[in-house]
What we know:
It is a single chain. By secondary structure, the protein is mainly alpha-helical. The chain is built from ten helices and no strands. Helices cover about 70% and strands about 0% of the residues. Helix 7 packs across helix 8 (about 135-155) and helix 8 packs antiparallel against helix 10. The mean pLDDT is about 85.
Amino acid sequence: MVSTDRPRRSDATKEAIRAAARERFAADGYERATIRAIAADAGIDPAMVMRYFGNKEKLFAAAAEFDLRLPDLTDVPVDEIGARLARHVLDRWDGDETLMALLRAAVTNQAAAERMREIFAAQLGPAVLAIAPGDVSTRAGLVATQVLGLVLTRYVLRLPPVVAMDRDVLVTWLGPILQHYLTGEPKHIKSV
């Protein structure tokens, strides 16, 4: 009979691989991190990494435990929510190679894109639910469009006008949009 009190050896091996992968992806970025280097960091043969995870993309998705560290916005004055969230986005993404690696991978890899969707649904959805009226999934989705668009253009594509913007100026532009998505109402277009 197999004991359920101790974790199975394969579970420990998988966790060692995931931990090594998180560190390697953070240190080297997605593109430069290799299965061979991750296996060496975990102290195992590269074939074991492939056995458990199949390929680098699936390993990245499995290792991607990202915390957006969203602030509790329930005590923030309603008219300051958008600016507070905008500042948080900039603070969280500035220099975080692991988040950037996930975003880069999500653009071209289905497993990484699914992981990004899971992260935003699990973390952004409840944060929006705590402060926003109405259709929370729509509001969270619209917030995600702005946040992901900003981080893609500022940190991954590095579009010069967006990269050059001062943080306070960027908050001035982004804050009201996030504010509207979180607390505003859509304006209905009248047909002519």
